[in-house]
Amino acid sequence: MIIERNMERTDLPLVVIPACFPSMVPYLERSLDEIAAKARVRMHTDMTLDLDEILNRLAGADVAMTTGIHFTNDILDRLVPTLRCITFGGTGIANFVDIDHAHDLGLMLCNAVHYGDNAVAEHTIALLFEITHKAGRLDVRTRAEGWPGSDITEIGGLTMGLIGFGGIGHRVAELAHGLGMNLTVWARHPDDETLQQLGARRASSIDDVFATADVVSPHLALNDATRGIITASHLDLLRPGSIFLNTARAELVAPGALEQRLRKGDIFAGLDVFSPEPLPADAPLRDCPNTVLTPHVAWRSGKALAGIVQQNVRSVIAFLDGGSYNVV
Amino acid sequence: MIIERNMERTDLPLVVIPACFPSMVPYLERSLDEIAAKARVRMHTDMTLDLDEILNRLAGADVAMTTGIHFTNDILDRLVPTLRCITFGGTGIANFVDIDHAHDLGLMLCNAVHYGDNAVAEHTIALLFEITHKAGRLDVRTRAEGWPGSDITEIGGLTMGLIGFGGIGHRVAELAHGLGMNLTVWARHPDDETLQQLGARRASSIDDVFATADVVSPHLALNDATRGIITASHLDLLRPGSIFLNTARAELVAPGALEQRLRKGDIFAGLDVFSPEPLPADAPLRDCPNTVLTPHVAWRSGKALAGIVQQNVRSVIAFLDGGSYNVV
């Protein structure tokens, strides 16, 4: 479906939403009036990743509001000069656009931040509960097998080791603390006062976290300094029975290192992120034991979707007013 | 396997463990030396529910240490007078023995208490996470379907409504508070100071809880006053999207009432307890939509199992010394 506002007002700039995640549609639809006060708006309510189709839909657009669309440099070249601003429904946009090239073309790039801190932190804990209490997989087994026996593991009293202490890492620390876990935190710029309030120990190194925690979870942005920051040597420090969680980015871990460590069969992993995504049918991770795999859904709560749209709309309004908001 | 200690010392009383849950074996085995300081001990390490076999195994026993064994009055009659004390690896033992009849026979009955408060409280939260974040079922779908799309629901900001505020209810309140949930609590004898510390609202009635909470979870012991205390009318008060959890006892809910409410399709349920157990293959609950079912595992953590054994052993030692501990 295509929803349009003000299309007769050719004096106004054109804002196009070329494709939508289904669950984002209601939030975007509710925001159209606000944008229509300053622009023509065209919203395509279906999702497509077909780049020719996306090019067609963005023809003549001044602003593109996008989520999940990967822009090649060739496409950017073809959209400029009419296109002047792109909003992205996410924080880490380097996977979706060549930021330097876009800036060279004079494009304003806007992202959304912190909208999903609590959602992602909760999903990190959800993965931990599924590894220790197995509620979802026991549900499936109870339906298939009748009445399967199973033991659970209490998480209270375990030590959560966090690598990174930004918005999400901090929220994971609060939730883990609330569940009676001990905390060990490594961060480049730790907030000692907050660590103290949570009774958290400041780790001296990433090695320290891996060697002492029962559960290790990285919460770092992906960039040149963090790509592959978790190595096979770190993973080798995990003691039998330890749990590795990842709701941040798969590329924080050196390629193949996690699969290799998991194959020993003595640790557990709860993963929401993979490289590449979607996770291929023949990905070695699918055959590793003791894993819980979810398809990059940690951020996809109603609250987070509403937050993304609210921030992206604010960026569009700011751009149309000659200002800026959430510019990358 | 049969493990024996002191069997030549026929001057000492005989303590028999007639059957074991597999996961309890290591904890019981470690406790044998302590008992053997005061008694002959025979431990059967396999599990059986065959009553003739259990009768054979308990022949001549002064003390029976049991978990999961249902004693009929006929069996009690046949075990008395040599049998003088039974320990149960659980709290609510009325389902396993006719307490009045046992007392008439002069038997001392001992249970274990609070060993599983944190484990059961955690599992309550685990069921809540599985309903809202679906990690376990998404894992199964990711393996079967490749890369399923799914939204999640944040639990932070939702209201947890608790019915009962004993050891488990209190711990659920603490965990929910730590996860950023609001609390509404109904209890016969609420601890106002504790409620205040958790920022909990004291509900005026069970109706009040069902009408105002997003998540409702009963934590009451099962007895004549609480059997069927949750009625169809209560469940009708749940708003669409609400979640009903039960890790206490299925019999707290009026027979059939939950199935009837679930069939409307607009609420969710996370259940670890059923009536009867094991849940029959043709139980109507299995066909109700929006449910997560786990096979009464909430209490089965290593910590809880160790706690049960520790308390049961303390009861046995106390009995052998002419005293009493955890006597029902």
From TrEMBL, chains A, B:
Belongs to the D-isomer specific 2-hydroxyacid dehydrogenase family. PANTHER family: D-ISOMER SPECIFIC 2-HYDROXYACID DEHYDROGENASE CATALYTIC DOMAIN-CONTAINING PROTEIN-RELATED, D-ISOMER SPECIFIC 2-HYDROXYACID DEHYDROGENASE FAMILY PROTEIN (AFU_ORTHOLOGUE AFUA_1G13630). Residues 30-325 form the D-isomer specific 2-hydroxyacid dehydrogenase catalytic domain. This is 2-hydroxyacid dehydrogenase. GO terms for molecular function: NAD binding; oxidoreductase activity, acting on the CH-OH group of donors, NAD or NADP as acceptor. The lineage of its organism: Bacteria, Bacillati, Actinomycetota, Actinomycetes, Bifidobacteriales. Gene3D superfamilies: NAD(P)-binding Rossmann-like Domain. The keyword DNA damage does not apply. It holds the Pfam family 2-Hacid_dh. Keywords: NAD, Oxidoreductase. Residues 125-298 form the D-isomer specific 2-hydroxyacid dehydrogenase NAD-binding domain.
